[in-house]
C-alpha cells in the first residue's frame, strides 16, 4: 500500500480547488461565491459597482473581521485586470485568494497575516474588456479599454493637469469604494512588461519632472515597496527579461521616468485617498497561454504575500480629545513629508503612516488650532504584523465640535497646477513617441 499516494489522493480535491486556466466572469463568480461560503468566518464577497455592460466588480475581502473595519487593523487592496487584455494579474489574484483561505489555520505566517490585516481583492476591474478578447495575444488589443472604449488607467482625476474625460462607471465605482474604507496600501496589476512602477505617473517641475522623473515626498517608502515586490520575483528583479524593451535596474522604476501618463489610478490613490499604490507589470506577454500560469504563480506568490505585509510598516494610532473621544479630520503628517492633500484621521480618529525605520517628527494638527509636534523612532526590527502604535491625546481644552462635522476638503482639480508647470521638453517624449507608434501600452 502506497500511503503517500493515498494521502495525496485524499488531499488533492481540497488543495487543488482552483485550476490553472483562465476563469471567465461566470466561473470567477462561482469560485468567489464558493470561497465566501466555505470560509465565511474569514471571507466576505461584495460588488462595488458594475461595468458598462452590467458585470459586477467583485471584491473578496479576507480578514479576521472581513465584513467591517476594526480600529488598528489596516486595510490593504489588490486590483487586477483594469486593462482587460492584461490577464495574468486576474488569475494570480484568484490563486492568491485560494492560497490565503486554504492556509489560514495551517501556515503560521498566513494565519497571522489574515488575523492582523484586512485584505481586499478585486480580480477584475474591467470584466467587459476581458470578455471581449477572444484568445490569448501578447500585444496591444482593444480589450484594454472598457466597452465605451475608455482606457481606465487614464480616466481618473489628475493632480497635475485637467483630465477632461468622461468618467466611466468602472472608474466611478473605484472612486466611491475608496471613500468607504481607509486604504493604506495597494497595488494594481498589469501586463506587457516586467517591472514594479511607483508614483508619480504624471508630474511638474516641482515634483522633479525637469530631471525626467516625478517623485513623491515618500519616495524612499515607494522604492522600498516596489523593490519588496520585484526582489522576490526572480525574473522581475533582473530588469531585462522582456525582449526589445527597456531595462529596469532592480526591476523597479518611477512611473514618470518610464513614461508619463495622465489620469492614472496610482497617483489618484496616493493624492486623493491617502493610499500608497504601485503598478505591477507581471508578464512580458499581456495575455499568455494558460499553460504558463503555473510558472507565473510560482514567480509571484512570495512577492504577493510579502507586499501585503508592508501595510504594517511605520506608525499608526488614534487621535483623541481630553475625554478620549476619537477626533476625525485631524491632519497627521510627518514633518518635511507634507502631502499636497494632507493625510487626515478617519471617522475613528485613526491615522496610518507608512515609514521606513528611522527618526521622524509627527505633526498633529487640529484644523484651526495649534500643531503638536512629537518625535518618534520607528524601530529597525519589524513588529509582529503591526506598525508602531502611538495614540495622541490632543491637549486643547477648546471646543472641537466644529471639526467633527467639517469634511476634509481636497478639491478634484489639478492640485499641482499652481506649482511650476510642465515643460514639454523635459518629458521623456522620444520614448513615449516610439511607444505610441508601436501601439505598445502597458500601465
Ligand atoms: C466549497 O465546498 C464545496 C463542498 O465541499 C466544494 O465542492 C468546493 O470545491 C469548495 N470551494 C472552494 C473554493 O473551496
Ligand atoms: C488573532 O488575533 C487575536 C486577537 O485579535 C488573538 O487573540 C489571536 O491569538 C490571534 N491569532 C493568531 C494565530 O495570531
Ligand atoms: C471639458 O470638456 C467639456 C466638453 O468638451 C467643456 O465644455 C468643458 O469646458 C471642459 N472643461 C475644462 C476644464 O476644460
Ligand atoms: C504642521 O502641519 C500644519 C498643517 O499642515 C502646518 O500648517 C504646520 O506648518 C506644520 N508645522 C510644522 C512645524 O511643520
Ligand atoms: Zn496595463
Automatic annotation (TrEMBL):
Topological relation to the membrane, as annotated: Lipid-anchor; GPI-anchor
Cofactor: Zn(2+)
InterPro entries, per database record: CarboxyPept-like_regulatory, CARBOXYPEPT_ZN_1, CARBOXYPEPT_ZN_2, CPM_N, Peptidase_M14, Peptidase_M14_domain
GO molecular function, a single term: metallocarboxypeptidase activity
CC terms in the record's Gene Ontology section: extracellular space; plasma membrane; side of membrane
Annotated Peptidase M14 domain residues: 21-311
Record: active site: 281
Catalyzed reactions per annotation: Cleavage of C-terminal arginine or lysine residues from polypeptides
Task of the protein: Specifically removes C-terminal basic residues (Arg or Lys) from peptides and proteins. It is believed to play important roles in the control of peptide hormone and growth factor activity at the cell surface, and in the membrane-localized degradation of extracellular proteins.
Descriptive protein name: Carboxypeptidase M
Phylogenetic lineage: Eukaryota, Metazoa, Chordata, Craniata, Vertebrata
